[in-house]
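TEACHING EXERCISE
Course module: macromolecular assemblies
Task: Read the component lines below, then compare them to the predicted structure of the full complex.
Student: A.B.
Group: 4
Components provided:
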Amino acid sequence: MSDLKRTPLYDLHVELGAKMVPFAGYEMPVQYPLGVMKEHLHTRAKAGLFDVSHMGQVIVPGARAAEAFEALVPVSLTGLKEGRQRYAMFTNDEGGILDDLMVANRGDHLFVVVNAACKGTDLAHMRAHLDVVEEITDRALLALQGPAAEGVLEALVPGVAAMRFMDVGIFGWNGAELWVSRSGYTGEDGYEISVPEARAVEFARALLADEAVEPIGLGARDSLRLEAGLCLYGHDIDTTTSPVEGNLAWAIQKARRKRGEREGGFPGAARILSELEDGPSRLRMGLRPEGRAPMREGVEIFASAEGGEPIGRVTSGGFGPSIEAPMAMAYLPAGTQEGTTVYGEVRGKRLPATVVPMPFRPSTYKR
Amino acid sequence: MKFTEDHEWLKTEGDLVIVGITEHASEQLGDVVFVELPETGTEVSKGDEICVIESVKAASDILAPLDGEIVEINEELADNPGLVNEDPLGKAWFFKMKLADASALEGFMDEAAYKDFIG
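Instructor-supplied answer key:
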């Protein structure tokens, strides 16, 4: 693993007994001694601390940054108020998704967080279209998620409890500047906190000192986001899926749609706008397999228990520790109704599953 | 008790052999969420994939350690797959089989050899 990068928290992960695995070019903790199942349940019951420093942190400066950035995403950014964050996706000319991301309006600049695996291509893409793009390489990124997150962080960083879901703000902690957003990737209330690299371990230890907080690895991060119905780039969405097919139309504001004030003007607008009007041919949907056998990525979905061609494929699937049952996401023909029984072929056997709305478990954001 | 290189344990009970997975294997798998067992009466050959274990991480197979017939399965694992993590060497046995050749057991590792094997 010699050519893999390490986050500023690497030594702390090892000290905490993490099992380290390669992920998106980094050595990352997949689990701690608690194990995936208990880490998942702990996050839902109290608070989990995640190291997400492998993700890309980017600043796009300038008073006109929001306007310029709108040329890359189907999302309204000039309509995004200062101190607020929004989910977005970079699209390509065919209307596929290059990456999904968070964009925050911080007054005189945008703060953008992108996926680790796409960081390099995202930066090149932004630099090809925007005047100034600054990659932040001297900050770690932590996420504190779960019902106890508010109390734990407020005790260290007074003021964060007043934030609402998708608010962003700058706070001080023992002389360090923290960039805080009230958001996450678990379906829980919580925060994502950008902290100067040199202070990251000290800050993480301060959070872990609270008995409500356990360190959580990538394994539980995946089952938490899956229960919350959130997409994993490269699996549930990619360059072949449009935002509308990906069931992400909610992220495209009226202003960018047909007859909106700033209609289109982003890559792939022709396809995406027509799919918004006429509906896509396929759509990302939730599946609840009957029984306990998980349907994992790649499982083919059929309309009937025997014969026929596949109607879709699972893009993410596994066992949901909080719902105590397997769950999956799959692309299915757009007209497929909730409650329909479909069949996933697992090890040569067609097993029934019900089409269900997502999230699989209600999210608890502080709106 | 004998051990295979596929991290199964084998214990004789009269003329039957009880098969499970080792503590090391259960730790490597992580939390087990689903177990699929073979049907009793199935004739199996050494190396056949006869059980599936799904953990929170991935699916793995249990291979038939030797030629023989499955005579009993542990139904409790279907309802409570977490037993594989809680008590891999005891309550979480997978199946009992009647060996085609009982002397074939001799070739497997004993506990000391298995401990060396997993390092």
